[in-house]
């Protein structure tokens, strides 16, 4: 009776704020006792308290069993507490969950609908695959509950069940479809919600719901529902181009009429991401093939919609509501790639957003701005951004004044800082983001946007001076990359970076936690590597080796040591830039011979360095220590050299000059993948031990001993070791050219260098002038044309893999779950047994399809052997056996395939009515004929029909019957696919033919058909064709008389018109294709086009061959000396047989033998003086392997991935008597595969 | 998953209500919304890239929704408004103390608006009707 209530607990916690932890501990102990009591009220209260503590971060998993006890109470508020507690504390692996199944089942069927609601709400969160399996029948039944309140809850709950137990989808989706037409708007909303989530994960299966959703879109006024539907259509659009057209109008209406900003925004976003606004014409859209050509066809509604979107988004951005501003920027970002010009018009507003106080908005604006950058405006945009980060001196002055003013007069206290710049400059996250973005877009495509590299290097150096940003390493990388790639900028960069190294105030910045001194790593490396541009070597050395440098990081220090040595070497050999008092020097030739270094200077510098190095060799960093020790030894060596006596007095010892040769040679940019692409030499086992590992000896001791050994070596042979390394570099370079002496003694070359450098410095001054910010589109002319080295070094023969290959498509668990069920394939209540059966069938399909074919091949070989050798009988017997075996496997696999097909057919009536859906799309098609691909598919459908007609003569579809009424049935047999030969706004023209046979020694007759499709809005009266005779073929009318004109009757809107003609083709041994020119006259104008009759026309109309005949033909190598093969991916191997038949029809080849997943085909030319040419082919299909075997397959699979992950590969091997013909055939197959 | 979590914090960052619709590996993320626009982009801390945090500030409380890209930002802002209005009706002039002392009731109210991470009902009268019905039964049984 004296237990605390939840209220008491909370009050207690608040009262004991000082020792909250202790109070809660005692409470928890009480609760542990309370949950064990039999009084359910006490138990429930304890669970409620636990629930509260859980929110504060205390564990309540231990109470799982007691929670279930509370859930099973008959009192509603107990139940409520129980379910709430279960929802927050149960995990997938909570073991008492299995006790819940019956409890939840009972609650779901409770008379009190609120109990059922509690159970549904709880189940949403705690559902597991087991619970899903056991409860889904109940849930699905409840979708027809009498109360709308329960119906909507069940629908939402089922979504979570689908995620855990996808099989439930099969039964539930048809019911879900019914709920889209529910009388209660909330239920419809819930159903749409669930469909939207499902479709996001697996859009294909929910496309059939489009008609209903479309009705809701047009009739509903519930904004929340409309938003969901619009989002849902956004997910469906990519799958069905026809849908886009249907949606444009309602979406445009919604954007214009709705008062809800949220709905307007979602409509705009869907219009952009759903493909309703196609890319602008000038974009290279046609590269991607069929889908791209479709979207690039100009739809006038496109630009209207785009305009509406842009103007609406402008309102968003200009709005004072930050949320709208943010979303507006986000949507513009998406629109930018499609309509760069339209978005570009609002540049000013976007730039204003960069000054916003809100960092989220600034980031969005920045993202937008950085994708708007072009070669023209890159300088201005970067300058604008830098100006934001580094307040100019005037601004700073103004801020000081402001601070002064505000401190003196209190009235100014309330004012905000005058500009956002002050806050911006101190905001390091933003600063970092700005700079990384700039670096990213400037370096894109090897600096494609940067024209003026002096400006860019200057900008890079300014970035590191931004206070608070940490970009040192990134900038360092860019500086080195630019200097290595762009020779022209090295001079400028060396000078600018020398200044940076000498910048005392920059060095001071090491005192801050966030600084950019890491960039000095690159600075030192560049001045060292390109020390020939250094103008003040002695001074520079003093800055490089300096007690203050120990403040810098170890990597920078080690770079400094190396740089100091390089600069010193360059100075000694006189290979640095001469001072600028040039008048005298040009005359005085001796000045070029060698720099006049006095003995004092030499000794002084040497001593300075020795001192510095000896200090650094005591560094705690190993790298610095090693490099300093190396340098120390080299310098000691130089110090000990005796200067040779010469007439001019003291000169630098020659041996000291040799120091420079250590650093000779150019470094090239290396591809990041180069190292991994170096082939492992034969016989080298990288995994083998170099030294066999010592068995159990105290490891510490060994490493210590080794450590000493290393050290000793380092100090003794340090110099030699280094020079050894450099030797290879030296060898790689052309000795004479790069020898410092050689250059030194060549006054002309130096002269030139000097001249060049002088002009460069002049230009530098010019280009660093402040630029006008308003000149947005007039780029400052770059002072010099820079040559950029874009070639990255790679090992010989290595090819860089594109990133695409490396990226794997990753999906989250939920998506995988929802996708795992294909709604168009088997579904049943007793799904488990079925699924099993299915898997078995699949396995049959998967089992190697090739053996049968191999057997055929073996048979061929054997026969041949049998024929030639004398052991006829024996081999024939074995051959026969083989044959039987082949047949058997064939039968087996045939049965397996049949089973699979059967299971397909069984479920062919999909859960959701596909026919209805097709109507939905097709009505649209007839009303407003779409062009291009869809028409093409229609004509090919017609063509397919004709081919089936050929196989089964009756009944002819009415359309085709009229087309070919004058032809005999077997004449049509070969007519299989129309090819598009003219595509106009108003009509499409297709052409097809079939071979009729030889009419004379030199001529083949073809029966051909021209097919016109009227895609305009008006019934066209007629089409008139004039066809000119070609060089190797002539065209006549059907009855053989000479053809002058060919006229069609009126062609109705969206109807076909046909014209028959005959083509006489001259035979030739090379089997060349023929072509004739033709003109087409309509009301709208005259068009010329070409009718091409491919080489296949030479094939006999219908050649029959038995498998034995085929084998015999192949066994004679003289028949088919040429061979080729092609592979292409297919979305699915299930309809392989149809595919092969279509392909064979198209190629005019006869199918010889067909087994599961493999077909042999044959064709023979009609024959002429050149004799008969044979074509034999083998088409095989296999499921796509996880890892493509070679480069070609990789390329293929890349395109296949777009079509769908679970496809197959069809390979086509061809043997043929004519090399020209084989090419034509392969090309045709290629064509064919691209239409898949 | 549409809505991943609903959280209510006070100005000092103390959680008042936390309702997760996903089973999270570990609890208590720390959110300190300070900027001016009401959206935050997802981070590694909460749910990854497809996550948006949408919040609204009322007096001493922050109402935070963690959602993915299938939810409309402005729609969720409206939803928060609905939630607050329902709370206001249920508690009569709701204040932070109501949420502190009756977390179970708040949780139950929330479950009438969002169920298992999906929006259940957005219509204010409908929600209030159910709540009244629930209260009546509660009074009878207690």
TrEMBL record, chain A:
GO annotations of cellular component type: AP-3 adaptor complex; endosome membrane
Pfam families xrefs: Adaptin_N
Q: According to its UniProt record, where is this protein located?
A: Endomembrane system
What's this protein's name? Answer: Clathrin/coatomer adaptor adaptin-like N-terminal domain-containing protein
Q: Does the keyword Repeat apply?
A: yes
Q: Where is the composition biased (Basic and acidic residues)?
A: 719-740, 749-758
Which SUPFAM superfamilies does the record match to this protein? Answer: ARM repeat
Q: Where is the Clathrin/coatomer adaptor adaptin-like N-terminal domain?
A: 20-636
Q: Show the InterPro entries listed in the entry.
A: AP3_complex_dsu, ARM-like, ARM-type_fold, Clathrin/coatomer_adapt-like_N
Q: Which UniProt keywords apply?
A: Membrane, Protein transport, Repeat, Transport
Main localisation: membrane
Q: Which family does it belong to?
A: Belongs to the adaptor complexes large subunit family.
Entry's PANTHER family? Answer: AP-3 COMPLEX SUBUNIT DELTA-1, DELTA ADAPTIN-RELATED
According to its UniProt entry, the protein's GO biological process terms are: Golgi to vacuole transport; protein targeting to vacuole
Q: What segment(s) does the record annotate as region Disordered?
A: 707-795, 860-905
Hydrolase found in the keyword field = no
Q: Where is the composition biased (Basic residues)?
A: 759-768
TrEMBL record, chain B:
Q: What is its main location?
A: membrane
Q: Which GO terms describe its cellular component?
A: endomembrane system; membrane coat
Name its cellular compartments. Endomembrane system
**Keywords of this entry:** Membrane, Protein transport, Transport
Q: Name one GO biological process term.
A: intracellular protein transport
Query: Keyword Transport: yes or no?
Result: yes
Q: Does the keyword Amino-acid biosynthesis apply?
A: no
Report which superkingdom the organism of origin falls in: Eukaryota
Task: Specify the AP complex mu/sigma subunit domain's residue ranges.
Answer: 3-135
Alphabetized SUPFAM superfamilies for the sequence:
SNARE-like
Instruction: Give the similarity note.
Output: Belongs to the adaptor complexes small subunit family.
According to UniProt, the name of this protein is AP complex subunit sigma
Q: Which organism is it from?
A: Chytriomyces confervae
């Amino acid at each position: 009776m004296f237990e605390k209530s939840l209220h008491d607990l909370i009050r207690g916690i608040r009262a004991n704020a000082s020792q909250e932890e202790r109070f809660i501990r005692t409470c928890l102990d009480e609760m542990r006792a309370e949950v064990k009591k039999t009084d359910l009220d006490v138990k429930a209260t304890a669970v409620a308290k636990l629930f509260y503590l859980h929110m504060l971060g205390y564990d309540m998993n231990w109470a799982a069993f007691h929670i279930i006890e509370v859930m099973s109470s008959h009192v509603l508020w107990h139940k409520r507490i129980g379910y709430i507690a279960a929802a927050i504390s149960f995990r997938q692996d909570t073991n008492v969950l299995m006790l819940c199944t019956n409890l939840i089942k009972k609650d779901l069927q409770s008379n009190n609908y609120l109990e059922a609601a509690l159970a549904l709400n709880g189940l949403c969160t705690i559902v597991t695959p087991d619970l899903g399996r056991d409860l889904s029948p109940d849930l699905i039944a409840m979708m027809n509950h009498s109360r709308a309140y329960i119906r909507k809850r069940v629908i939402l709950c089922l979504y979570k069940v689908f995620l855990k137990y996808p099989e439930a989808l099969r039964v539930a989706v048809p019911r879900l479809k019914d709920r889209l037409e529910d009388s209660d708007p909330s239920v419809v909303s819930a159903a749409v919600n669930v469909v939207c989530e499902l479709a996001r994960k697996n859009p294909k299966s929910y496309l059939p719901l489009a008609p209903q959703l479309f009705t809701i879109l047009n009739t509903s006024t519930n904004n929340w529902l409309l938003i969901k539907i619009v989002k849902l259509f956004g997910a469906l659009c990519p799958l069905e181009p026809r849908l886009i057209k249907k949606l444009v109008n309602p979406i445009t209406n919604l954007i214009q009429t709705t008062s809800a900003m949220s709905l307007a925004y979602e409509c705009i976003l869907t219009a952009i991401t759903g493909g309703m606004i196609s890319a602008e014409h000038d974009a290279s859209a046609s590269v991607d093939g069929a889908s791209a050509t479709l979207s690039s066809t100009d739809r006038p509604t496109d630009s209207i919609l785009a305009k509406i979107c842009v103007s609406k988004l402008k309102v968003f951005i200009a709005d004072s509501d930050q949320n709208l501003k943010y979303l507006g920027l986000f949507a513009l970002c998406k629109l930018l790639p499609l309509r760069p010009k339209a978005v570009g018009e609002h540049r000013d507003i976007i730039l204003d957003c960069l000054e916003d106080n809100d960092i989220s908005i600034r980031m969005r604006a920045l993202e937008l701005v950085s994708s708007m950058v072009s070669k023209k405006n890159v300088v201005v945009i970067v300058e604008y951004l830098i100006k934001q980060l580094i307040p100019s001196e005037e601004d700073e002055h103004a801020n000081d004044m402001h601070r002064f003013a505000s401190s003196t007069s209190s009235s100014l206290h309330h004012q905000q800082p005058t500009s956002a710049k002050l806050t911006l400059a101190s905001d390091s996250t933003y600063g970092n983001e700005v700079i990384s973005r700039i670096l990213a877009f400037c370096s894109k495509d090897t600096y494609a946007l940067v024209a003026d590299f002096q400006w860019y290097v200057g900008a890079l150096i300014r970035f590191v001076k931004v206070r608070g940003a940490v970009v040192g390493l990134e900038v360092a990388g860019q500086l080195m990359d630019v200097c290595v790639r762009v020779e022209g900028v090295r001079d400028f960069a060396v000078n600018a970076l020398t200044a940076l190294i000498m910048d005392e105030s920059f060095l001071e910045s090491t005192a801050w936690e966030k600084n950019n001194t890491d960039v000095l790593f690159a600075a030192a490396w560049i001045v060292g590597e390109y020390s020939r541009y250094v103008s003040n070597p002695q001074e520079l050395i003093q800055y490089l080796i300096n007690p203050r440098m120990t403040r810098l990081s170890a990597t920078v220090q080690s770079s400094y040591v190396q740089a100091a040595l390089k600069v010193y070497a360059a100075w000694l050999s006189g290979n640095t830039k001469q001072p600028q008092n040039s008048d005298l020097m040009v005359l005085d030739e001796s000045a070029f011979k060698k720099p006049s270094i006095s003995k004092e200077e030499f000794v002084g510098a040497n001593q300075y360095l020795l001192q510095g190095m000896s200090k650094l060799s005591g560094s705690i960093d190993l790298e610095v220590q090693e490099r300093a020790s190396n340098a120390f030894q080299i310098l000691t060596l130089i110090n000990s050299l005796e200067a040779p006596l010469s007439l001019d007095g003291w000169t630098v010892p020659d041996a000291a000059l040799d120091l420079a040769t250590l650093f000779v040679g150019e470094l090239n940019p290396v591809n990041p993948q180069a190292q991994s692409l170096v082939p492992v030499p034969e016989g080298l086992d990288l995994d083998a031990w170099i030294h066999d590992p010592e068995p159990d000896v105290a490891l510490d001791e060994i490493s210590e001993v080794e450590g000493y050994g290393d050290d000793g070596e380092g100090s003794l042979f340090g110099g030699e070791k280094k020079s050894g390394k450099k030797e290879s570099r030296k060898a790689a370079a052309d000795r004479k050219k790069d020898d410092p002496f050689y250059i030194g003694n060549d006054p002309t070359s130096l002269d030139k260098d000097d001249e060049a450098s002088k002009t460069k410095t002049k230009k530098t001054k010019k280009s660093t002038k402040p630029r006008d910010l308003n000149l947005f589109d007039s780029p400052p002319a770059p002072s010099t044309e820079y040559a950029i080295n874009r070639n990255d070094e790679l090992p010989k023969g290595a090819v860089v893999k594109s990133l695409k290959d490396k990226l794997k498509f990753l999906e989250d668990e939920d998506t995988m779950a929802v996708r795992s069920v294909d709604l168009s394939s088997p579904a049943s209540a007793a799904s488990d047994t079925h699924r099993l059966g299915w898997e078995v069938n699949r396995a049959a399909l998967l089992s190697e399809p090739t053996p049968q074919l191999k057997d055929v091949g073996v048979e061929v070989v054997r026969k041949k052997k049998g024929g030639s050798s004398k052991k006829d009988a024996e081999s024939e017997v074995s051959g026969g056996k083989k044959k039987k075996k082949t047949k058997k496997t064939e039968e087996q696999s045939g049965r397996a395939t049949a089973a699979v097909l059967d299971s397909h057919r069984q479920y062919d009536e999909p859960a959701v009515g596909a026919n209805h859906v097709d109507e939905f799309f097709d009505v649209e098609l007839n009303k407003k004929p779409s062009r291009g691909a869809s028409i093409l598919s229609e004509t090919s459908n017609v063509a397919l029909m004709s081919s089936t007609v050929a196989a089964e003569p009756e009944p002819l579809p009415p359309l085709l019957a009229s087309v070919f009424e004058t032809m005999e049935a077997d004449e049509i047999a070969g007519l299989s696919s129309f090819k598009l030969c003219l595509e106009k706004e108003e009509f499409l023209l297709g052409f097809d033919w079939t071979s009729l046979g030889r009419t004379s020694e030199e001529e083949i007759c073809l029966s051909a058909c021209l097919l016109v499709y009227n895609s305009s809005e008006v019934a066209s009266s007629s089409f008139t064709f004039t066809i000119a005779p070609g060089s190797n073929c002539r065209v006549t009318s059907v009855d053989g008389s000479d053809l002058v004109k060919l006229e069609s009757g009126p062609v109705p809107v969206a109807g076909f018109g046909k014209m028959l003609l005959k083509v006489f083709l001259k035979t030739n041994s090379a089997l060349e294709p023929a072509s004739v020119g033709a003109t087409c006259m309509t009301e709208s104008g005259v068009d010329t086009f070409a009718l091409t009759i491919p080489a296949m026309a030479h094939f006999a109309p219908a050649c029959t061959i038995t498998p034995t005949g085929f084998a015999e033909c192949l066994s004679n190598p003289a028949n088919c000396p040429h061979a080729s093969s092609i592979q292409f991916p297919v979305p699915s191997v299930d309809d392989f047989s149809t595919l092969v038949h279509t392909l064979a029809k198209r190629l005019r080849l006869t199918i010889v033998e067909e087994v599961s997943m493999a077909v042999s085909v044959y064709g023979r030319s009609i024959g002429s003086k050149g004799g008969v040419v044979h074509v034999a082919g083998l088409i095989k299909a296999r499921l796509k392997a996880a890892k493509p075997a070679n480069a070609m397959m990789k390329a293929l699979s890349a395109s296949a991935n777009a079509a769908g992950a679970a496809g197959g590969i069809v390979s086509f091997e061809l043997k043929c008597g004519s090399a020209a013909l084989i090419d034509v055939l392969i090309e045709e197959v290629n064509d064919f595969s691209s239409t898949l | 998953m549409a809505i991943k979590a609903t959280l209510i914090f006070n100005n000092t960052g103390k959680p008042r209500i936390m309702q997760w619709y996903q089973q999270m590996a570990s609890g208590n993320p720390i959110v300190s919304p300070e900027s001016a626009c009401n959206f935050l982009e997802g981070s590694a801390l909460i749910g990854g890239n497809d996550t948006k945090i949408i919040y609204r500030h009322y007096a001493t409380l922050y109402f935070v929704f963690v959602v993915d890209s299938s939810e409309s930002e402005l729609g969720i802002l409206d939803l928060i408004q609905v939630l607050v209005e329902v709370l206001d009706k249920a508690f009569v002039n709701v204040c932070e103390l109501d949420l502190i002392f009756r977390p179970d009731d708040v949780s139950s109210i929330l479950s009438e608006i969002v169920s298992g991470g999906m929006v259940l009902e957005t219509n204010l009268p409908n929600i209030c009707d159910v709540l009244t019905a629930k209260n009546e039964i509660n009074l009878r049984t207690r």
